[in-house]
Amino acid sequence: MPKILLVEDNEMNRDMLSRRLMRKGYEVLIAVDGQSGVEMACSEAPDLVLMDMSLPVLDGWEATRRLKASEVTRQIPVIALTAHAMSSDRDRALEAGCDDYDTKPIELPRLLGKIDALLNGALGGAVVAEERLG
Q1: Collapsed DSSP state (helix, strand, coil) of residue 54
Q2: Helix %, strand %, coil % for the chain, to 5?
Q3: 89: domain range?
Q4: N or C of the chain: less Cβ packing under 10 Å?
């Protein structure tokens, strides 16, 4: 079962998205700020990180930079989640090291497509498909 770390400070967004991901067969870990997100990524080794960009303590931009700068977490795909929908925001997320970008409000089918694409690239499609069936 692929493990996703959801770094989100908004309780309603966090609860809704984590429940929907669990129903799709993912194990979901939760962090409520960027600093704890970085620490959990190091200790829990998730398969993918969903990173809100507007976070307390350490924002998502800096948290992603730290993940991508660390030997331990560099290979973990990061999808930026943000209400900022300007093309410059997408560029900024990618420059910070995010592997993809999605806007809020979250459209689950679109986000799942991005998650699957990154996990299949990171884990190999057969592994993910097999875990979904099992």
Answers
A1: coil
A2: 50, 20, 30
A3: 3-133
A4: C
Is 77 within 8 Å of 118 (Cβ atoms)? Answer: yes
> Collapsing DSSP states into helix, strand and coil, what is residue 80?
strand
We report the CATH number of the domain holding residue 37 as 3.40.50.2300
DSSP 111-134: HHHHHHHHHHHHH-HHHHHHHHH-
Q: pLDDT truncated to tens, each residue of the chain (134 aa)?
A: 999 999 999 999 999 999 999 999 999 999 999 999 999 999 999 999 999 999 999 999 999 999 999 999 999 999 999 887 787 888 889 999 999 999 999 999 999 999 999 999 855 443 434 343 33
User: How many C-beta atoms lie closer than 10 Å to residue 107's C-beta?
Assistant: 11
Q: Is the peptide bond before 46 cis (omega within 30 degrees of 0)?
A: no
Instruction: Give the tokens for residue 118.
Output: 């990154």
Number of folded domains that form the chain? 1
